[in-house]
Every structure is written in structure tokens, then in C-alpha cells.
Q: What sequence folds into this?
């Protein structure tokens, strides 16, 4: 089977146009929560996070599955889009909004973003 | 910017939708990479967004892995017999029209053993939302072929490959007049959730086909691979076209690069099934004065 790990951990595509509200839009910032014991390592969250900021842990849970964690140095990148939460078949990951950040919108999103 | 920024993932014990789940039964029995859990999640999010009190929601399932849904959601739910989710739900929808009835079941349950019920529930335009989890096989019983399995697919019952053309379910239910018809894959979790919500709010029959990976029964014997690989196929091949001609929306997961058309295909307003009075009863219990009298008379007769 083909390996499906992403080639890069950086957001990839450029937006088609510059959003008109770029100067004043706020981007929500999220905190990621994981329930390791529920995870079955399907990788849906890792693969389809539009920020490409998740990866699998090196540790395993009681059933032997690797669960998601945040890539090193990417703690601030979660935009609380909620896609990892909704797509997870195991109810094992979710996010909470902790702040809205002034920094300009991140250029574009990751190649698998089908969330909008 | 706040002073306390986000940190590495925090380990939690409880999920925000746990209150709507029989959380003591989690992790559920479904295989890694199975899409049924995602569908269940989308249903619960739609339920929350519906604004209808959870006590006014009912979830009905048949038998199968998809049918396990009724056992995990913490709403009034019925795990009926194989193929009979629809007649069971019809009884509830007609007798208690104030309830929001949702059927969540498998492609085999709803279109094979329950296929006739599907046609007639759609034809009568019964007020319910049907979420048909299509994983292209009978997952629970070990991967047999059914009426949605693509041609040439290998399965427990078709070692030489399926020889007959599968159902095009949106075309089928549209042909008999369902009020709302949509198809998504579980990768389209947001769109799926929105369609379920539209279905709940729509009077009459709403049918939502959900394409869902079954790595155990369908993926492995057919070189589709693990759940994530089927998801990547959906990502590559799904085309959103609300205006697609429904006779053309056949799916063939095994023919590389044949498109998979998804979307909200049909939204019409035929009157919903209402056998008692021809119009939805007004009383909050759903019983009209006449029907109450009739039932009392029937009781007396017994
Ligand atoms: C009357 C009857 N016939 C056959 C069965 C065996 N059986 C259980 S589940 C199932 C098929 C389920 O397929 P599907 O509805 O597609 O659900 P999935 O497991 O794929 O989600 C069958 C044939 C049964 N339980 N009852
Ligand atoms: S909420 Fe969105 S951005 Fe944040 S981790 Fe989940 S998928 Fe990624
Ligand atoms: S989607 Fe859920 S089950 Fe799958 S890897 Fe992520 S947390 Fe684990
Ligand atoms: S057999 Fe298929 S449908 Fe059943 S739980 Fe496993 S992956 Fe899901
Ligand atoms: Mg099935």
C-alpha cells in the first residue's frame, strides 16, 4: 500500500485571492485536547488537519495504538476549525478556542483541506 | 494575544459530546479506520444544532455495524431487527409526529433486506431522516457482497468478483419522490452534518447516503487499503455537484479515477405522509381527538 504521510508539515497552497478582511480579521486560536485511550490510530485527524500540525505519538496507549500529538514548535498553529474533532470516529480529539489572534491569516491551507 | 498561549495537546478524559453518548461503552467495537463513528458524530452535532430538545429526538437502527449506532447514542433509540428499521421508524413518525425521527443503518440493512421498505417509505414521503451508511458490503457478517458492492469486487460471497450492477441509491429514492436527497463521504464531515440538519428540518422523507470506509470487509480484499487510504480516494475523486443528473451518479470505487459525485441533490416539498387526517395532527402528543377515540374504541373491541 502507498504510504500516506504528508510530504511537508507546512501549510502548502496559496490562497486564490487575498481576503478583503485580511487587515482586520482575527484568527481563532485553539487548544488541542486528546483522549489517548480512545484513539485507534486511524490517522484521519493527522492527515486532514488543515494546518498539518498533528503527528502520531511515539508512545502507545493500552491497546497499542499511537495517538495524535502536536508537532514540535506548532503549538500556536491550531485555528480551532474543529475538523479533527468532527472527523475522528472515536470521539478522541477536540479543541477549545482560547483566543482570537490579530496576526494576519496564515497563507493558505494544507493540500487536503476539504473542510470549507 | 493572551499571556497563556496554547500548549502541547492536553490529555483529557471526557469529550464534549460524551453527554449524548453512552460513554461508558467507549471505545466502541468498530474497527480502526471505520467511518461509522464519524457519521455518528455528525448526527450528534446536527442534533445539537437542531435546537430540538434531545428528548424529542429518536434514533432507529437495523442490524449491522452501522446499526450499532442506536446502542451508542444517548437518545431514545431502537435497535430493531435486520432490514426493519424503516417500518419501525414509520410507526414512530406517524404516531408521534412531534418527534424528530432519524434512521441510521447500513447499505445492506436499508437497501438489501430492507430495500422494499426503503422504496415505499420514500414514495410515501414519511417524515424521517434516513442516514444510509454505504460501505459497499455487509461489514458485520464478514464482508459479503450486497446490492451496493461495485462490479468485479471480491468478497466472501463473490470470490470471482461481483457480476451485477449496484444500486444508485440517490437516483432510486429520487425516482419515487423523496423530499431531500444527498450524498457525502465521511471525509465531508461538515457537509454531512449540515445535510443531516437539513433533513431533520425537512418535512417528508430525507435520504442521505454516506460513503464510509470499511477496511475490514471491503478495503482489504479489494486493494482499497486501510480507512485512511479510502479517505484519500474520496479526497481525490469526490466532485461536489448539487445539480448532477441523478441517473449519472453511479459510484465505482474500484475503477481508478472514476469520479464520485456528492452533493445535496434534491430538495422539494411534496406533502409528507399523514395517514390519519391528511394534515399533521395538532395536539402535542401527536394524537388527534378522532384518532384517540378510534384507538380507545379499538382497545375496547379487544
Ligand atoms: C434476518 C437476518 N438475516 C441476516 C442476518 C445477518 N446479518 C447481520 S448484519 C447483516 C448485514 C449488514 O450489512 P449492512 O447493513 O451493510 O451493515 P454494515 O455491517 O456493513 O454496517 C446481515 C446479513 C440477520 N442478523 N438477520
Ligand atoms: S482544530 Fe483544526 S487546526 Fe486545530 S488541530 Fe484540529 S484540525 Fe488542526
Ligand atoms: S482521528 Fe481519532 S482515532 Fe483517528 S488518529 Fe485521530 S484521534 Fe486517533
Ligand atoms: S467490519 Fe467494516 S463496517 Fe464493521 S466495524 Fe469494521 S470497518 Fe466498520
Ligand atoms: Mg454495509
A:
Amino acid at each position: 500500500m502507498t504510504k500516506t504521510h504528508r510530504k511537508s508539515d507546512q501549510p502548502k497552497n496559496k490562497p486564490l485571492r487575498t481576503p478583503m478582511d485580511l487587515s482586520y480579521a482575527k484568527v481563532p486560536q485553539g487548544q488541542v485536547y486528546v483522549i489517548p485511550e480512545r484513539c485507534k490510530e486511524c490517522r484521519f485527524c493527522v492527515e486532514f488537519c488543515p494546518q498539518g500540525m498533528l503527528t502520531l505519538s511515539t508512545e502507545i496507549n493500552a491497546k497499542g495504538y499511537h495517538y495524535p500529538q502536536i508537532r514540535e514548535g506548532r503549538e500556536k498553529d491550531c485555528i480551532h476549525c474543529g475538523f479533527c474533532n468532527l472527523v475522528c470516529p472515536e470521539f478522541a480529539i477536540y479543541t477549545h478556542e482560547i483566543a482570537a489572534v490579530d496576526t494576519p491569516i496564515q497563507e493558505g491551507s494544507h493540500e487536503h483541506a476539504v473542510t470549507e | 494575544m493572551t499571556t497563556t498561549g496554547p500548549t502541547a495537546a492536553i490529555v483529557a478524559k471526557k469529550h464534549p459530546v460524551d453527554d449524548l453518548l453512552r460513554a461508558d461503552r467507549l471505545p466502541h467495537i468498530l474497527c480502526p479506520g471505520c467511518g461509522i463513528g464519524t457519521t455518528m458524530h455528525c448526527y450528534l452535532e446536527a442534533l445539537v444544532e437542531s435546537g430540538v430538545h434531545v428528548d424529542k429526538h429518536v434514533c432507529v437502527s437495523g442490524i449491522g455495524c452501522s446499526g450499532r449506532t442506536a446502542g451508542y447514542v444517548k437518545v431514545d433509540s431502537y435497535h430493531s431487527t435486520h432490514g426493519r428499521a424503516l417500518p419501525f421508524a414509520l410507526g414512530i413518525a406517524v404516531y408521534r409526529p412531534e418527534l424528530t425521527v432519524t434512521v441510521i443503518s447500513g447499505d445492506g440493512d436499508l437497501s438489501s433486506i430492507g430495500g422494499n421498505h426503503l422504496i415505499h417509505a420514500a414514495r410515501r414521503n414519511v417524515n424521517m431522516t434516513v442516514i444510509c451508511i454505504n460501505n459497499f458490503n455487509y461489514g458485520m457478517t464478514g464482508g459479503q457482497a450486497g446490492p451496493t458492492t461495485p462490479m468485479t469486487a471480491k468478497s466472501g460471497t463473490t470470490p470471482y468478483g461481483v457480476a451485477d450492477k449496484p444500486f444508485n441509491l440517490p437516483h432510486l429514492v429520487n425516482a419515487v419522490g423523496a423530499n431531500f436527497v444527498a450524498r457525502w463521504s465521511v471525509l465531508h464531515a461538515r457537509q454531512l452534518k449540515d445535510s443531516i440538519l437539513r433533513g431533520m428540518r425537512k418535512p417528508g422523507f430525507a435520504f442521505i447516503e454516506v460513503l464510509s470506509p470499511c477496511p475490514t470487509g471491503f478495503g482489504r480484499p479489494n486493494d482499497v487499503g486501510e480507512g485512511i487510504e479510502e479517505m484519500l480516494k474520496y479526497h481525490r475523486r469526490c466532485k461536489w455537484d448539487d445539480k448532477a443528473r441523478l441517473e449519472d451518479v453511479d459510484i465505482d470505487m474500484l475503477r481508478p479515477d472514476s469520479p464520485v459525485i456528492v452533493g445535496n441533490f434534491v430538495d422539494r416539498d411534496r406533502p409528507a405522509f399523514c395517514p390519519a387526517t391528511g394534515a399533521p395532527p395538532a395536539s402535542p402528543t401527536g394524537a388527534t381527538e378522532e384518532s384517540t377515540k378510534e384507538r380507545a374504541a379499538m382497545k375496547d373491541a379487544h
In short: Residues 1-10, 104-116 of chain A have pLDDT under 50 and may be disordered.
